[in-house]
Inverse folding.
């Protein structure tokens, strides 16, 4: 089938003709039921949308564009598509990881020394997803008109999935680049104008929220097969994405609302802490999972998760990234350092299961890479690595609990600031009038304790207490630490810190954390601590050359001009 497709390999605006072979997405048992339709002959794009099965195959392409292994050789490192790109732009830049295998662009990305020539400023994998989704949303209705067994209700459900996939791609783009071109129309021919200027990240976020709220009623509640229920966007998956978007947009009541829609659904619960590594990250599709991309072994018909395996490793692959020494539990910067305010020893299972600590300068990432931790003697462990490739989890129940906790903290902070202003105007003592006795604070502590005690079973019911914290700011820090512990290496940390920095309009909130992993002569990013734009990525030089309507992020434009002089 001939398809007019955006090719973003050099430019978001280059249009090429390619032959599109129908992509088989692993979304059901046997891995071949979800879409297997391959046209016998080349067809023009408009002629392909004849049946529900063809529409379903194109919806599969939207998912596959996120997982497909677009493997190329680059500086002796094989990349693995969008998961690889996303993880390097998030975990690779955060305080969680340091590069282990030398690569100049990865090293500079990790240290914040980023210019527009860095390979990983390439945003083409995201726009590939977006164009597949736009094509489906444009042509899907034609299959309904031609296939009497394909109902409009079924199409609307699929449209909700495509809209969610497109929204997820744009959400990542905004969090990584800030302002980006927003394209909602399918690329159909080479007569279209591709030199599109940037839209503000804030306006894109509001558009995504509106799009998702519109399609939410049409989304499927669940699917019969487990790999579909976990591997396709359901109503709860869209609730989770909306909660994340509202949290970013500082609409905290709406974030809480969408979290609650998931929390009250009894199909989700935390798995036991002792088996979390195996159930959630090795086997996958656990009862805690809301949405995760499906991977496996190629010989079984699955897509192999090349990107994640190359970055975190497995039994046959050395990892590109290691865990940062700033995570060591004896390091004051670690979220595992003295987790208890009274100084009791910390035996958090997440430290034991997610980091392979050899008591040396090398600490390996074991989450996703590992199969099992075995205690050989008191405090001594052996670690068995997996041989296959894992799924990639986008949203799970623990993340939702902690998103709600973060949103409630901000609601209390906002109300407390109002109260403080009122009391100050009337010469009333704030200390006597504003405390931590609000019901929301009790809910926050309950949410945090739900994930904390899951991973600290030896404590029994000896939970973290409100009385251990002096004010709402210290509880805010607790929530951030608990998200750090719980979601370690899951692509969340950089975005969590960036969200906190945006609220305060202060890049030092992020940079003060990330600088803990730096060594040597410092880095450009940390020295630019007064500029929020430094926290985002520059636009790739090739994109700027191809499109004169694009304007570089002002911080990077000035930086690169200074480097020339």
């Amino acid at each position: 089938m001939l398809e007019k497709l955006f090719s973003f390999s050099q430019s978001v605006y280059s249009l090429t003709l390619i032959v599109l072979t129908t992509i088989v997405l692993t979304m059901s048992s046997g891995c071949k039921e979800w879409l297997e339709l391959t046209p016998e002959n080349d067809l023009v794009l408009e002629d392909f949308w004849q049946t529900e099965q063809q529409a379903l195959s194109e919806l599969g392409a939207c998912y596959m564009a996120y997982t497909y292994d677009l493997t190329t050789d680059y500086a002796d490192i094989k990349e693995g598509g969008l998961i690889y790109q996303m993880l390097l732009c998030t975990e690779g830049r955060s305080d969680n990881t340091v590069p282990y295998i030398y690569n100049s662009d990865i090293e500079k990305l990790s240290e914040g020394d980023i210019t527009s020539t860095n390979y990983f400023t390439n945003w083409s994998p995201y726009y590939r997803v977006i164009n597949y989704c736009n094509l489906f949303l444009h042509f899907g209705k034609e299959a309904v008109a031609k296939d009497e067994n394909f109902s409009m209700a079924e199409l609307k459900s699929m449209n909700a999935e495509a809209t969610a996939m497109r929204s997820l791609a744009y959400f990542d783009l905004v969090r990584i680049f800030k302002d980006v071109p927003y394209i909602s129309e399918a690329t159909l021919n080479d007569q279209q104008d591709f030199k599109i200027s940037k839209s503000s990240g804030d306006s894109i976020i509001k558009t995504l929220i509106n799009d998702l709220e519109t399609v939410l009623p049409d989304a499927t509640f669940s699917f019969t097969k487990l790999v579909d229920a976990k591997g396709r966007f359901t109503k709860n998956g869209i609730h989770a994405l909306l909660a994340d978007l509202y949290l970013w947009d500082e609409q905290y009541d709406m974030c809480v609302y969408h979290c609650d829609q998931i929390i009250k659904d009894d199909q989700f619960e935390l798995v036991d802490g002792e088996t979390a590594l195996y159930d959630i990250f090795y086997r996958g599709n656990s009862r805690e999972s809301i949405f995760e991309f499906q991977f496996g072994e190629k010989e079984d018909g699955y897509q192999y998760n090349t990107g994640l395996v190359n970055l975190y490793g497995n039994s046959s692959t050395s990892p590109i990234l290691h865990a940062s020494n700033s995570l060591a539990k004896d390091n004051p910067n670690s979220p595992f350092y003295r987790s208890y305010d009274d100084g009791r020893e910390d035996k958090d299972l997440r430290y034991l299961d997610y980091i392979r600590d050899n008591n040396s300068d090398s600490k390996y990432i074991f989450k996703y890479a590992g199969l099992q931790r075995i205690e050989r003697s008191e405090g001594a462990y052996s670690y068995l690595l997996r041989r296959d490739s894992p799924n990639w989890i986008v949203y799970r129940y623990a993340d939702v609990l902690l998103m709600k906790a973060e949103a409630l903290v901000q609601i209390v902070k906002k109300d407390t600031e109002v109260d403080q202003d009122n009391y100050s105007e009337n010469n009333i003592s704030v200390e006597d009038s504003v405390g931590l006795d609000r019901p929301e604070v009790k809910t926050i502590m309950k949410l945090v304790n739900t994930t904390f005690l899951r991973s600290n079973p030896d404590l029994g019911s000896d939970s973290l207490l409100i009385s251990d914290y002096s004010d709402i700011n210290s509880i805010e820090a607790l929530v951030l630490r608990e998200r750090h512990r719980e979601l370690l290496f899951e692509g969340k940390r950089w975005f969590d810190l960036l969200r906190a920095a945006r609220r305060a309009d202060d890049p030092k909130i992020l940079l003060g954390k990330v600088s803990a992993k730096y060594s040597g002569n410092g880095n450009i990013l940390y020295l630019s601590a007064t500029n929020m734009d430094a926290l985002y990525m520059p636009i790739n030089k090739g994109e700027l050359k191809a499109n004169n309507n694009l304007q570089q992020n002002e911080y990077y434009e000035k930086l690169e001009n200074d480097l020339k002089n």
Notes: The two ends are 51 Å apart (CA to CA). The first strand starts at residue 2 and ends at 7. Residues 397-425 form the longest helix (29 residues). The CA atoms of residues 26 and 302 lie 6 Å apart.
